[in-house]
């Protein structure tokens, strides 16, 4: 799964990398983004645009928005079949800009060690995601998103049994294109090459969403 990630590149770097205009939510550098928080994501209607979304997808047909807490991730293998995701897969795909994410390595005696994962070149990348617009009977509007996950690559399989779907830059346009078919887009969802990624252990302070500063990504000595 993917339950925490970072986005600390500057707003102008994000705007240039993804060819969009920046928004206020992108101005804050983030080192420990957690579910239910507001995050800038990128969609394409007539052109690319960055929009603010709450992490945890609420399907348009949902009666209770609390369902979003259970839908921070979506399995890439079953998107086209699941009622919660198949409509968004066909019409509301998005990119989630990031520069790294966290997973927790299981240790002895039930302990878990947070691990930071990023590309070896430390460049910005994009998770494949879906977004939804939800409206309550009272007229309350809510825009939400989920991060798609796939089987892990050789590097990540030592840490977790899933990993977020990271798109190659040359695949992002196809993912966003409203004219792309479901088959076209599902075929993009695969493990990112292990030799282009790296991992290292970080402080357990990242366990708390309230800790959101550069100390979160500082490498710690390996736990024995």
Structural write-up:
The protein is mainly beta and 224 residues long. It has one domain (5-217): Alpha-Beta Complex (hypothetical protein yedk fold). It has helices at 11-18, 86-91, 172-176, 182-186; strands at 5-7, 30-33, 38-44, 48-55, 73-75, 93-98, 100-106, 112-119, 125-135, 141-150, 163-164, 166-167, 197-201. Strands 3, 4, 5, 6, 9, 10, 11 and 12 form an eight-stranded mixed beta sheet that branches. Strands 2-1-7-8-13 form a five-stranded antiparallel beta sheet, with no helix packed on it. A hairpin with a 5-residue loop joins strand 9 and strand 10 (141-150). It is globular and about 50 Å long. The relative contact order is 0.19.
List keywords for this structure.
224 residues, mainly beta, hypothetical protein yedk fold, eight-stranded mixed sheet, 34% strand
- Helical proportion? 10-25%
Q: Strand fraction band?
A: 25-35%
Instruction: Indicate the low-confidence ranges by residue numbers.
Output: none
CATH superfamily: SOS response associated peptidase-like
Query: Shape from CA axes?
Result: globular
Number of domains: 1
Could you give a short account of the major beta sheet?
8 strands, mixed
Global Rg: 17 Å
Structural class by SSE content? mainly beta
Separation of the first and last Cα atoms: 25 Å
Q: What is the fold's blueprint, element by element?
A:
Layout: E1 5-7, H1 11-18, E2 30-33, E3 38-44, E4 48-55, E5 73-75, H2 86-91, E6 93-98, E7 100-106, E8 112-119, E9 125-135, E10 141-150, E11 163-164, E12 166-167, H3 172-176, H4 182-186, E13 197-201
Parallel strand pairs: 4-10, 5-10
Antiparallel strand pairs: 1-2, 1-7, 3-4, 6-9, 7-8, 8-13, 9-10, 9-12, 10-11
């Amino acid at each position: 799964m993917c339950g925490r990630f970072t986005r600390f590149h500057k707003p102008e770097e994000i705007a240039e990398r993804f060819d969009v205009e920046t928004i206020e939510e992108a101005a804050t550098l983030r080192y420990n983004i957690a579910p239910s928080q507001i995050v800038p994501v990128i969609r394409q209607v007539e052109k690319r645009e960055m929009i603010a979304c709450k992490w945890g997808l609420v399907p348009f047909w949902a009666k209770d928005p609390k369902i979003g807490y259970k839908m921070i991730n979506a399995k890439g293998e079953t998107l086209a079949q699941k009622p919660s995701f198949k409509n968004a897969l066909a019409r509301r795909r998005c990119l989630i800009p990031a520069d790294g994410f966290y997973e927790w390595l299981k240790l002895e005696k039930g302990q878990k060690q947070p691990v930071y994962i990023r590309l070896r070149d430390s460049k910005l990348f994009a998770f494949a995601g879906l977004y939804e617009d939800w409206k309550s009977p009272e007229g309350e509007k809510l825009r939400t998103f989920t991060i798609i996950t796939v089987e892990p690559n050789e590097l990540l399989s030592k840490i977790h049994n899933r990993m977020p779907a990271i798109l190659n830059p040359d695949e992002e346009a196809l993912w966003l294109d409203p004219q792309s078919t479901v088959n076209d887009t599902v075929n993009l969802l695969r493990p990112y090459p292990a030799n282009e990624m790296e991992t290292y252990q970080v402080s357990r302070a990242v366990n708390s969403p309230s800790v959101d500063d550069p100390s979160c990504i500082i490498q710690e000595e390996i736990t024995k």
